[in-house]
Amino acid sequence: MTTFTDQQARQHLDAVLELARQQGEVRIKAQSGEEFSVRAISRAPSPLDIPGVDVRLSKDEIVQAIREGRER
């Protein structure tokens, strides 16, 4: 695990975050002696995030199909 001083972390935040993403965790040690952990949070994809389907219908055709469905 990589440890940075607080000054190094301020100066190279992009590198700190990239290492946290690659390694899972990076530590930052403050001048006071306290240590902090920076971890990347992995996000699960949303079940609602699905690829679109090209049905090659115009807006008017879609609206007409919806209207017909509501009339039933």
Q: Tell me the overall shape.
A: rod-shaped
CATH homologous superfamily assignment of the domain at 1-41: YefM-like domain
The proportion of strand residues reads 15-25%
Query: How many distinct beta strands?
Result: 3
The ordered H/E elements are EHHEEH
Please, how many helices?
3
CATH class of the domain at 1-41: Alpha Beta
Distance between the termini: 64 Å
Give the helix/strand class.
alpha+beta
The CATH topology name of the domain at 1-41 reads YefM-like fold
Largest sheet: 3 strands, mixed
The radius of gyration over CA amounts to 25 Å
CATH architecture of the domain at 1-41: 3-Layer(aba) Sandwich
Mean pLDDT: 93
Strand order, largest beta sheet: 1-2-3
Low-confidence stretches: none
Percentage of residues in helical conformation: 40-55%
Q: Oligomeric state of the chains? A: single chain
Q: Explain this structure to me?
A:
Strand 2 and strand 3 form a beta hairpin. 42% of the residues lie in helices and 19% in strands. A three-stranded mixed beta sheet has the order 1-2-3. With 72 residues, the protein is an alpha+beta fold. The chain is built from three helices and three strands. The longest helix has 13 residues, at 59-71. The protein has helices at 6-11, 13-23, 59-71, and strands at 2-5, 25-29, 35-39. It has a domain at 1-41: YefM-like fold (3-Layer(aba) Sandwich).
